[in-house]
Amino acid sequence: xxxxxxxxxxxxxxxxxxxxxxxxxxxxxxxxxxxxxxxxxxxxxxxxxxxxxxxxxxxxxxxxxxxxxxxxxxxxxxxxxxxxxxxxxxxxxxxxxxxxxxxxxxxxxxxxxxxxxxxxxxxxxxxxxxxxxxxxxxxxxxxxxxxxxxxxxxxxxxxxxxxxxxxxxxxxxxxxxxxxxxxxxxxxxxxxxxxxxxxxxxxxxxxxxxxxxxxxxxxxxxxxxxxxxxxxxxxxxxxxxxxxxxxxxxxxxxxxxxxxxxxxxxxxxxxxxxxxxxxxxxxxxxxxxxxxxxxxxxxxxxxxxxxxxxxxxxxxxxxxxxxxxxxxxxxxxxxxxxxxxxxxxxxxxxxxxxxxxxxxxxxxxxxx
Length: 368
Description:
The chain is mostly helical. It contains 16 helices and no strands. The chain has one domain. It is 81% helix and 0% strand.
């Protein structure tokens, strides 16, 4: 009988380990792959953090670059027509300024009026939605049973608490407006020189040609997509104006402008518009049934537009995958707020165009 079983087992394990091949304990290929994945993950985290930290600077500059790319084909046509670059840049810049401040002027007066009536609006909505008092009271009782007194908060409707953060995000600071218009003007003015400088960074002719193709494809894709979407959204704005005017909502022109702007945000824009229509209808009209007419009519029109009109007009070449659009919308809204929601689809188009040219695919489409 062995008096040292533990020592014997340890010796056997050491012999088995010594007989195993060395590659089983250490594989340089696996460690190299793991280190590359870790480096990419760290870079991605740092990059997203940098986008968040530099938001006051990057957000207006990115908006300016997107709009500048969209106006690129117009500049190219103006150059062919013989117009000086300075005249073209000033004309396009003034056009953007007029559109920007025109929309603000149309929305400012109704918005300030409704903000001034915020306490009355909150009380009126609470009175119209009296049938929700019992579910709200049940939720309040549940919170009282679960949360301590120091963490209890009321469930009353205070519109100021919703309007103030929204205006904080939607209304940009004066500095960011200056960054946006300044970047846009100099981008339009130096577009040709910037393109030449970017192309000259590559050594061989093939890479220069590919870079030039990528920039041209970005400009034409953005211009084609956003111009078609703008026309569709104009029709949505006209429909919202007609609905508001027919139902009897105040400031129907402002409703049309708001619908035009919000429809640039996929999925969420139409939902926000319906909620706002319902809220204003509850304040304006005496009955809930009357208040539901405008949001239901707008829901019917946007459903028709989103499922039939827009896909038939845009075609396959300008159609993006809904899942990709939704994920892009979530990411940029989380990172840059409401303005990021407006930029989600244009930035997705830029990324997809670049990837298609950098990594071209000649494989045939798989069935199914």
